[in-house]
Amino acid sequence: GENVEQHPSTLSVQEGDSAVIKCTYSDSASNYFPWYKQELGKRPQLIIDIRSNVGEKKDQRIAVTLNKTAKHFSLHITETQPEDSAVYFCAARDGGTYKYIFGTGTRLKVLA
Amino acid sequence: KAGVTQTPRYLIKTRGQQVTLSCSPISGHRSVSWYQQTPGQGLQFLFEYFSETQRNKGNFPGRFSGRQFSNSRSEMNVSTLELGDSALYLCASSLEIHEQYFGPGTRLTVT
Fold this sequence. Notes:
Chain A is mainly β and 112 residues long.
């Protein structure tokens, strides 16, 4: 069935360093890939997304890349700050059914 | 625009009881999806309703059911509660094929 694998499950970086989180999806029909940030006790918040007709998208310090051939997509956060500490989820949406499948999450800790 | 709202925010039930959770989507959004979030399990998809019809379904037992009303508000019902049903239940709404936005969740504790 459909599956999204997310790695790593935890990631610790020094403030100012970059962080990269990777996801792999199995469903070839997936055409939309959002990333959500969930702070402790809060709802998941959409931070960036990419559609299958685009290879890269940037928004200030965050960027997402997509390799459709390899079915990989990644979140890149540069110049990390303590407020970037949270759990990040990737997801893939099926273009036909509009069903979302989420990764298992990455707990990012930015050390001051 | 007001965001997605969920009621109640917290709920404590005992095993064997049933529970109904409510979700009000962003105005104009016709798609409502429900997720179960537990530590270590991420976000598990329950079902999605679009224009009052269940469009997608996850791999949960029949004790989990839902419905959507003509104003797009959605309810989720869990019957014969088990301890393992303790979780944060999140709903999310979207404007057809566009981005999905989450509500604050209902924290269900089963004792």
